[in-house]
Amino acid sequence: MRVLVTGGAGYIGSANVDALIAAGHDAAVFDSLNQGHRSAVNEAARFYEGDLADASAIEAAVSEFRPDSIMHFASHTLVGESMEKPFMYLGENTTNAINLLEAALSQGVERFILSSTANLFDKTEKIPIAPDERIVPGSPYGESKYFIERLLHWAHVTKGLRYAALRYFNAAGCTPVRGEDHDPETHLIPLLLQVALGQRENIKIFGDDFNTPDGSCVRDYIHIEDLAQAHILALEALHEREVLHYNLGNGNGSSVKEVVESVREITGHPVPAEVTPRRPGDPDVLIADSSKIREELGWEPRYPDLKSIIQSAWDWHNKHPDGYED
After folding, report:
1. Do 5 and 16 meet the contact criterion of CB atoms below 8 Å apart?
2. What residues act catalytically?
3. CA separation for the pair 26, 71 (Å, rounded)
4. Domain containing residue 91
5. What is the DSSP string of 56-74?
6. Termini Cα distance of the chain
7. Cis peptide before 128 (omega within 30 of 0)
8. DSSP result, 194-206
9. What is the mean pLDDT of the chain?
10. Model confidence pTM above 0.90
11. CA 226 – CA 100 distance, rounded (Å)
12. Is a pLDDT exceeding 80 seen at residue 326?
């Protein structure tokens, strides 16, 4: 298949491009490089530098590459920032998706896979969280992803577009060649590893008064290689199926304090931690029920435990302490 990957120079997108190429697909990347890295793009992938806010740029890329499928990763993704800048998230993430969908539909793209989020589920009735759990987004970021899911619903109803919405929980870990390098960095595991590498003095734990056993919030960490394999399986399934909704996680919750202790153990560094006030928009517990994708598509995570995920990240950050070269 010919697959266009938006955000394919980013952390999760670049790992998916590698997986696509390894599976024998023809991949192209569309990325503004605002957060992504040119050196993270697989050499076998065609590259288009552009911003989804520029409808003519994405139209030109889709017209030239002529994909039959799209994987959409590019977006603003920070929950905390979205609470401070709600209309940037609600506006730009949604408008950019509309630009992409209009270009895709005009060129006859048949399948679309959305990088969605567990932040759809702020007020859950059951833990672990199943795909059919009621949707109550926890932030403008989560709301923007829900908007895009609704755009895909109507693109399917009115235009016949087949799509998958993959709501993954906390993406983490690294492959031997693809790592996490954000500016600024906001994710827990790379921040902890920066402390272990001597690049920052300590780590902040945002809140210790959550309704959890140790007071810190609990999250379900999922390796980016496992996410990539889920995308490949969903892409193949859309030949037979028309609409897919899956939650992606290991089904094991780890508290922030447990992650800190695991990093201390793996790196041998004391990793000083400071408790600070909660961030707006952070739920107590987010754990995925991924049984649906396991049963329907045979997905099985290769990194089912927290320590193997952290070890893979530590291996990459040790080799690339300053991140990517560009």
Report:
1. yes
2. 141
3. 13
4. 2-171+220-248
5. HHHHHHHHHH--SEEEE--
6. 30
7. yes
8. HHHTTSSS-EEEE
9. 96
10. yes
11. 26
12. no
